[in-house]
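Re: the request from the purification team.
They wanted to know what the chain is likely to look like in 3D before they choose a buffer screen. I agreed to run a prediction and write the result into the notebook, where they can find it.
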Amino acid sequence: MEIDRAEHIKKLKKRLTEKRFIHSVGVEYTAANLAMVHGADITKARIAGLLHDNAKCYSTEDKLRKARKHNIEISKAEEENPDLLHGKLGAYYAKEKFGVDDKEILDAIIYHTTGRPDMTLMDKIIYIADYIEPNRRMLPELPEIRKEAFTDLDKCLVHILRNILGYLETKDFIVDDLTQKTYDFYNKNK
């Protein structure tokens, strides 16, 4: 699989804010490094990392409207917090606007926000790369999480999910059922 990075970059710059674009390049870089360490396809990791947030900058209302227009299934949590739709919508646009037809890449884009039980290696890489990329503001325990990412993906995943669920609880935000199920799956198996 080849990547027309220059073309992807050109299209992404039109879709994202400068800050989100820099983040996406950081996720691409981090995903490539994680793929090298853990034996995943580096090109696929780069594509998924670069494109994972391609639908992030739409307004909340636009995300919901576009998901309905393209017959994308909307969960109860996504209905209540349409910003969660950017993964599903991003996979749709990765296919339709960027020409990506690889299921492994598209799934990694879909699940980079919520996770899912029994994630593929690529799912884990993109989920984790999104959290640890170098441009991220310093979050609690981030140095430790970054080390875990290169030694034990499942341990790292549980650590990230625990932090995210704890944060969402303190803010009284809606927790997507899939995120809780992902945590339960990996916490039980750790």
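For the purification team: The radius of gyration is 16 Å.
Please add any questions underneath this entry.
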